[in-house]
Amino acid sequence: MSRATNRDEPRAEIIAAARSLFQRGLTHGSTGNLSVRVGEHLLVTPTGSSLGTLEADELSLIDTAAGAHVSGPRPSKEAFLHAAMLRARPEANAVVHTHSTYAAAVSCLDGLDPDDALPPLTAYFAMRVGRLPLLPYFAPGDQALEPAAEEAARTHAALLLSNHGPIVAGTSLGAALDAIEELEETAKLFLLLRGLPTRPLTPEQVRALARHGK
Ligand code: ZN
Questions:
Q1: How far apart are CA 82 and CA 67, in angstroms?
Q2: Cα(99) to centroid of ligand 1, in Å?
Q3: Residue 136: CB partners within 8 Å, gap ≥ 6?
Q4: Which of 35, 50, 62, 171 has a 20 to 30 A CA-CA distance from 74?
């Protein structure tokens, strides 16, 4: 594989994921952003772009440590959150953020447990997402959210932003997508089950999943 191909690979991966999310209605308008770690930098979708029409040469490069814009178009105004999650999780290589309908709906509910916004309804949610802290509301792009997100991301791969949506880090873009889609499906189940007697997995069942591998 040539060096040029290696350099282009994360770009192609981001575009394929962006299209897939958009086509399946997991992002709308110009919402949602994705990033992949490339050495000391972070390749991220630009501000004001639709994930349905974005092209590989339209991605932004930012510095992961400082969050500063390095090259390409102006990054998403939520790119600082991606950088914060990757700083907090050295093993992670990609971050996905959406305003997907069911997770965004849950993020607007009153009375959620801020330490764990969704119960472990299914094994796949417990394995791929785990505990989901709810972060306080900040306007999109408000960098005051950065310290809280970075702190929470040290111990959690997925965060739910109040009145906004989920953000998930993964060892690969595929893993981050799997996790955010599992989160969206569990948010949907949670809303379908509201008001019905529900039996989430027990703490012992969740521990057994962790013990027996993912
Ligand atoms: Zn957002």
A1: 9
A2: 6
A3: 148, 162
A4: 171
What would the pLDDT profile of 4-28 be if each residue is shown by its tens digit?
456 679 999 999 999 999 999 999 9
What are the boundaries of each domain within the chain?
A: 3-211
Question: 96 C-alpha vs ligand 1 centroid, how far in Å?
Answer: 10
Topology, domain 3-211? L-fuculose-1-phosphate Aldolase (3.40.225)
Annotated catalytic, 137? no
pLDDT per residue over 42-61, tens digit each? 999 999 999 999 999 999 99
- Between the alpha carbon of residue 83 and those of residues 6, 76, 79, 128, 169, the distances in Å are 22, 12, 6, 21, 10
Q: Please indicate whether residue 78 is annotated as part of the active site.
A: yes
The rounded Å distance from CA 33 to ligand 1 centre is 8
How many Å lie between the centroid of ligand 1 and the Cα of residue 41?
A: 21
From the list 13, 78, 150, 181, the catalytic residue is 78
Are 17 and 44 in contact by the 8 Å Cβ rule? The answer is no
pTM score, two decimals?
0.94
Token digits for 160?
A: 């739910």
- Maximum C-alpha span of the chain: 57
Which listed residue (124, 146, 151, 185) is catalytic? 124
